[in-house]
């Protein structure tokens, strides 16, 4: 994990972290924050009736912040992250990321936007099982069409070095431990050099040592200017983040 | 390694899911190879058989004439409506095989075999001159007899003397029915040789090519009539017979063209079915693949993949399948075409010039092999990638929603069955469109399978029907002027003969009320209580003891003389005398042509051959036919006895020999059809495995719950196997329903193609129940692998899947 500053130093110059790439013309940047939730609500309609998973959430996150999101099961953490990444749309309210109004984009535009702006790390099932770790890391660049093939290869190698998986580069995901898989997923999330990393319980499945490694990685990334949102159940890990957002029944309580 | 990573993913997926990939590749290959094989061999046959046939000036008409000298042919040739004429001598004899058996021989002589104007033959190997005491053999005859140039053959032209003839050449003659079909040897000699053999030096047939409209039957027959009236009869000669060569084909066409085209058409339909099925299998497998990859699709979307990128990935995957499928299909198609046309060549005696696949066949295969899978896969791919990233990742919308129809609710109400059975039954009907596909494949395979069996059964019943008129173990041809009493006395002395009858055979014309004549019709004189015929009377009655001017006709006669019925009175002219008869009975078809049965004495006086008979018919048992061995033993005794007594030197014929050959040709066709049905069954089974696999994938959670409540491995497997067998049984019911019309159509087509006869359809219940067995086995086999997979799922994996 040592050479990590170098990697980001390099790519910082190229891409910047405040990129407004992919934002439609006329998008505005509200009160200067990188991420801004303005009275966001999410209501699911189920056979049992309507269910409000998020209630008028207002939230601003600046560039370079490491934020942990905590709360009981069912409190709306995943829903909140999904709003940010554009995986799901809010029922009401407005979400702007780097000045782009996410909910205004259609699915296709969101895919492109997401590829450039947000790296996502899930709890389970991240890596495509038939590709090697290195190939998994190259894949987002392939979809994004950034860099040429040789540069993609180089960048993937550097990112794996960054997360300490140089030796596993050519292994298939099944051969990796849970922590290694999670770090490979983080390398992949960084592939297109997005300014934001959003993760839903990245350590939920890991032993404390691996979880520790992942968190250190996040702290280092924040130092290079990335903004990281991390959902977690683990209070101790959560407390290592400078900022903690606590959700209860779809509302921010602290 | 400059391949984009997303293509690498697809390549690696293809490789890591080898069995599924092989399945799709094979299903594409089967369909495309079948289409290639059928179209390619159609082209080969049309080019090399029909094409070569056309090049050799095929006769439009054969006119058999009383013995004539050269000059008649030039007189006919000078007519403007005649393109070419060939004088020919055709005579029969017998030839001895290596085993010492005597078999039928057709001897042909020409003015000059090297310079034929009609039905041209080519000399393949050996010397080109044909001197006295020399013979040339048609190549399939030579092959069948195992004869080579230089061998000496023993030939009998009449019942007395045996002539040794030296084989000087092997000839290829496309215009004669080959040895492999007729069992008759075709050979060529010079007129001098015939003279030497005491057969006289004259011609007796004119082979004619008309100048225009050469495929117009009426036109050709009209020219024939005109030639008879204006050229032949004025020369003091008699026309015995005027015949358009071939099995019911138009003049100038290959003798089996209708049969071959009919068979090609049946194959073409099979080809279309094969392509439809392989398309269905592609849809099925690609849907399975997409269901399996939903999460991966979600992950790829989460890293910025656009929908068209994902669609193109899976299309690329199908493209790989197609390419591999084509790589198998093209060579296999060529091999298949080669095999099929070689197989046909063994019967219709043509040379395959090249098996190089024609461009149009290749293009057809490439178009089908590449476009068909891509086109059909587009539907599941577009559907599968339409799912939103949210649903893809969180697995909502999969197996979650269940619309319940009447049927499902009815299934829920079944209480009497054990819970795993109910669960399996409900599972079966969950995804209706998938069920529909699997069902239709298996149903089609079943309908086809039963149809093939029904075709066999129909053929058998048809043969049984014909066999009624051939109820002898052995028949022996007798020389002219054989006395009935001598014949029967001799026959009854043979130990082992239980029934002996002698029949008279002849030909007669019906004189219509307008004085016109019918064509010559076979007439038979037989004892009224004949035991070697078991007539199926469609109308009227059979002959009786006191019948004098009464006859029984067969249904085949109605095809030539449609106005006749029981009660009609007709006048017969047998050359010597004319007499009128009342039709008292009508029998079923004989397939060997029109026939009139007369009481034996009446036959004798009509033909002016009282007490004379032409054939002996014997049986070893009073009750019915004997088996092949008994028939053959009896045949030897009869032949030996009659030869020793100086009564006949002819070959005898057993019942089995007549019908055995017939069924052989059919069995070959049926084997081809059964192979097709088996392919359909395999495809259906693979489809079932595929959909059971997807079902399990979709229901991983449910299986986990089954597990959690303590279901054993066996119980989990049972649910899946019951599901597989249920689908199999459902398809059996549907297939049974469909098999009646499809069986009728298939057997109609096959029997019409091969026998040019109308069909008496017989449904095969044997086929129906065999298919039941097959379908249950398919159901079990198809669910073994999925059930294994389901049983291997642990509770933990199932929870992980969440
Ligand atoms: N698609 C959906 N349809 C209906 N209800 C949903 C849907 N997705 C989430 N919910 C409900 O919304 C609420 C919030 O869900 P969410 O997944 O955000 O919770 P969470 O805080 O991530 O919980 P956990 O810690 O268990 O992951 C839950 O009560 C959940 O049942
Ligand atoms: Mg959650």
Helix-strand layout with pairing:
The complex is a heterodimer of chains A (254) and B (802).
Chain A: H1 4-15, E1 35-46, E2 49-61, E3 66-71, H2 77-85, E4 92-97, E5 100-101, H3 107-117, E6 118-121, H4 133-144, H5 149-162, H6 178-189, E7 196-200, H7 208-223, E8 227-231, H8 235-238, E9 243-248, E10 251-252
Parallel strand pairs in A: 3-8, 3-9, 6-7, 7-8
Antiparallel strand pairs in A: 1-2, 1-4, 4-5, 9-10
Chain B: H1 5-16, H2 18-55, E1 61-68, H3 72-77, E2 82-96, E3 102-109, E4 122-126, E5 134-138, H4 139-145, E6 152-156, E7 162-172, H5 179-182, E8 185-188, H6 191-196, E9 203-210, H7 217-232, E10 239-243, H8 257-292, H9 294-302, H10 307-348, H11 359-386, H12 389-394, H13 406-412, H14 419-428, H15 432-467, E11 474-483, H16 484-493, E12 499-511, E13 521-526, E14 537-540, E15 550-554, H17 555-560, E16 569-573, E17 578-587, E18 595-599, H18 600-606, E19 612-619, H19 628-644, E20 652-654, H20 655-698, H21 700-708, H22 713-755, H23 765-792, H24 795-801
Parallel strand pairs in B: 3-8, 5-7, 13-18, 15-17
Antiparallel strand pairs in B: 1-9, 1-10, 2-3, 2-6, 2-9, 4-7, 5-8, 6-7, 11-19, 11-20, 12-13, 12-16, 12-19, 14-17, 15-18, 16-17
Helix pairs in contact in B: 1-10, 2-8, 2-10, 2-11, 8-11, 8-20, 8-22, 10-11, 14-22, 15-20, 15-22, 15-23, 20-22, 20-23, 21-24, 22-23
The complex binds adenosine-5'-triphosphate and magnesium ion (MG).
Adenosine-5'-triphosphate binds at residues 44, 46, 51, 53, 71, 73-79 of chain A.
């Amino acid at each position: 994990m040592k050479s990590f500053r170098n990697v980001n130093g390099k790519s910082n110059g190229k891409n910047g972290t405040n990129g407004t790439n992919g934002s439609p013309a006329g998008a505005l940047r509200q009160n200067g924050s990188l991420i801004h939730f303005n009275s966001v609500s999410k209501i699911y309609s189920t056979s049992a009736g309507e269910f409000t998973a998020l209630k008028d959430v207002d939230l601003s996150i600046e560039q370079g912040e490491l934020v942990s999101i905590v709360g009981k099961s069912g409190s709306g953490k995943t829903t909140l992250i999904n709003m940010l990444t554009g995986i799901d749309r809010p029922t009401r309210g407005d979400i702007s990321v780097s000045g782009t109004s996410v909910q205004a984009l259609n699915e296709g535009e969101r895919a492109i936007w997401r590829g450039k702006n947000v790296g996502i790390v899930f709890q389970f099932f991240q890596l495509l099982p038939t590709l090697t770790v290195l190939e998994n890391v190259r894949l987002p660049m392939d979809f994004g069409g950034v860099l040429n093939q040789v540069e993609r290869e180089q960048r993937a190698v550097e990112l794996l070095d960054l997360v300490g998986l140089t030796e596993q580069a050519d292994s298939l995901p099944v051969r990796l431990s849970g922590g290694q898989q999670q770090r490979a997923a983080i390398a992949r999330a960084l592939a297109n050099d997005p300014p934001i990393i959003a993760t839903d319980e990245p350590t939920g499945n890991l032993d404390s040592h691996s979880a520790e490694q992942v968190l250190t990685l996040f702290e280092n990334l924040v130092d290079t200017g990335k903004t990281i949102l991390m959902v977690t159940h683990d209070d101790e890990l959560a407390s290592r983040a400078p900022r903690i957002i606590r959700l209860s029944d779809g509302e921010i309580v602290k | 390694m400059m391949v984009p990573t997303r293509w690498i993913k697809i390549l690696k997926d293809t490789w890591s899911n080898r069995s599924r990939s092989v399945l799709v590749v094979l299903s594409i290959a089967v369909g495309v190879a079948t289409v290639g094989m059928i179209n390619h061999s159609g082209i080969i046959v049309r080019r090399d058989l029909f094409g070569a046939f056309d090049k050799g000036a095929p006769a439009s008409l054969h006119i058999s004439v009383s013995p004539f000298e050269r000059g008649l042919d030039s007189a006919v040739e000078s007519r403007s409506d005649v393109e070419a004429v060939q004088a020919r001598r055709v005579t029969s004899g017998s030839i001895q095989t290596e085993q010492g058996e005597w078999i039928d021989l057709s001897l042909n002589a020409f003015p000059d075999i090297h310079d034929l104007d009609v039905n041209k033959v080519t000399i393949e190997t050996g010397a080109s001159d044909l001197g006295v005491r020399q013979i040339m053999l048609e190549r399939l005859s030579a092959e069948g007899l195992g004869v080579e140039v230089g061998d000496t053959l023993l030939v009998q032209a009449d019942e007395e003397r045996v002539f040794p003839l030296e084989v000087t050449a092997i000839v290829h003659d496309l215009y004669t029915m080959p040895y492999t079909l007729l069992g008759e040897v075709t050979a060529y000699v010079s007129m001098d040789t015939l003279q030497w053999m005491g057969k006289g030096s004259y011609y007796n047939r004119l082979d004619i090519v008309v100048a225009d409209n050469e495929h117009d039957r009426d036109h050709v027959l009209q020219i024939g009539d005109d030639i008879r009236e204006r050229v032949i009869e004025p020369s003091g000669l008699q026309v015995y017979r005027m015949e358009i060569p071939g099995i019911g084909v138009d003049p100038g066409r290959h003798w089996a063209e209708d049969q071959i085209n009919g068979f090609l058409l049946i194959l073409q339909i099979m080809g279309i079915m094969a392509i439809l099925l392989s398309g269905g299998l592609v849809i099925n497998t690609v849907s399975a693949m997409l269901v399996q990859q939903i999460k991966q699709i979600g992950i790829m979307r989460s890293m910025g993949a656009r929908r068209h990128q994902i669609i193109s990935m899976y299309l690329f995957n199908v493209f790989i399948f197609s390419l591999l499928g084509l790589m198998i299909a093209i060579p296999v198609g060529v091999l298949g075409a080669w095999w099929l046309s070689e197989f046909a060549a063994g019967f219709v005696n043509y040379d395959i010039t090249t098996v190089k696949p024609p461009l149009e066949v290749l293009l057809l295969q490439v178009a089908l092999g590449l476009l068909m899978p891509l086109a059909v896969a587009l539907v599941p791919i577009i559907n599968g990638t339409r799912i939103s990233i949210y649903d893809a990742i969180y697995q909502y919308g999969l197996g979650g929603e269940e619309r319940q129809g009447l049927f499902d609710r009815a299934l829920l109400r079944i209480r009497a069955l054990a819970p795993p059975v109910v669960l399996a039954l409900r599972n079966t009907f969950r995804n209706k469109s998938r069920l529909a596909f699997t069902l239709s494949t298996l149903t089609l395979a079943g309908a086809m399978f039963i149809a093939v069996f029904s075709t066999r059964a129909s053929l058998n019943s048809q043969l049984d029907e014909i066999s009624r008129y051939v109820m002898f173990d052995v028949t022996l041809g007798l020389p002219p002027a054989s006395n009935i009493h001598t014949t029967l006395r001799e026959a009854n002395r043979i130990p082992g003969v239980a029934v002996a009858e002698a029949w008279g055979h002849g030909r007669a014309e019906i004189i219509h009320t307008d004085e016109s004549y019918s064509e010559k019709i076979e007439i038979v004189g037989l004892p009224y209580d004949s035991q070697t015929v078991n007539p199926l009377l469609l109308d009227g009655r059979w002959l009786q003891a006191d019948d004098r001017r009464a006859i029984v006709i067969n249904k085949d006669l109605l095809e030539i003389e449609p106005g006749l019925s029981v009660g009609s009175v007709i006048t017969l002219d047998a050359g010597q005398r004319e007499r009128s008869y009342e039709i008292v009975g009508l029998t079923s078809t004989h397939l060997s042509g029109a026939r009139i049965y007369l009481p034996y004495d009446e036959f004798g006086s009509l033909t002016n051959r009282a007490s004379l008979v032409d054939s002996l018919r014997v049986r070893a048992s009073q009750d019915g036919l004997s088996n092949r061995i008994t028939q053959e033993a009896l045949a030897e005794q009869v032949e030996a006895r009659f030869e020793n007594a100086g009564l006949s030197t002819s070959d005898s014929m057993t019942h089995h020999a007549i019908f055995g050959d017939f069924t052989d040709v059919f069995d070959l066709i049926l084997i081809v059809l059964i192979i097709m049905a088996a392919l359909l069954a395999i495809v259906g089974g693979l489809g079932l495995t595929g959909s059971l696999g997807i079902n399990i994938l979709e229901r991983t959670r449910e299986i986990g719950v089954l597990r959690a409540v303590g279901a054993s491995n066996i119980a989990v497997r049972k649910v899946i196997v019951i599901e597989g067998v249920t689908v199999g049984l459902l398809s059996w019911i549907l297939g049974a329903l469909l098999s009646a019309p499809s069986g009728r159509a298939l057997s109609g087509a096959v029997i019409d193609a091969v026998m040019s006869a109308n069909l008496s359809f017989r449904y095969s219940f044997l086929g129906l129940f065999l298919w039941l067995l097959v379908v249950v086995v398919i159901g079990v086999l198809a669910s073994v692998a999925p059930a294994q997979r389901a049983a291997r799922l642990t509770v933990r994996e199932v929870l992980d899947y969440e």
